[in-house]
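Hi U.,

Before I forget, here's the chain from the pilot set. I'm dumping it here mostly so it's searchable later in email.
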Amino acid sequence: MSESQWLSLALVCLLGAMSPGPSLVVVVRQSITGGSRAGITCAVAHGVGIFLWAALMVSGLGALVVASPDIFLAFRFVGAAFLFYLGIQSLRATSAGSEEVTAPFDGNHGSPAREGFLIALTNPKIAVFFAALFSQFIRPDAPAVAQWMIAGTAAIIDILWYAAVALLLSRTAVLAQFQRHNLLLSRVFGAILIAVAFSVVFAV
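Structure:
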């Protein structure tokens, strides 16, 4: 892969990571409720999930999931169910612990690592994104090193972007402002995740 091709790939991966979606909501929520440790843990776990999707696409198994209507429909329902679960979890959050800015994570929410990993692994839009991305950048005769470099690039860029978001939001001054409205934000995050869950189910 040439340097210009890699730069194009990196830019596409960055734009994909930056696009608003349930992954951003989860990382933001963890960063606000748990600080930098929770946010970065969530970001790294999300990157691991991204790498697994990329690896599946490299092997060709991921393309089978996207190409099979029945399998992809089942996968969409699993993803929607997880988003709905996270949304309900946020809606049921209490204000307990909202004054503790430096807490590792808020007991009202799930494990940052688990949520980051599963939101990446169960998001059907990520599967479609990688199917389109890899069809542009991977050729059948491409060496394994080039294929895994593409997968690694996608994962590293994803981790760096969400870690940057986590660090920005978990700055003490910024975090204090958000945590003054912790309960309201939890409700908003919950409503967004539930709305996304329904959009995934009823997407054409």
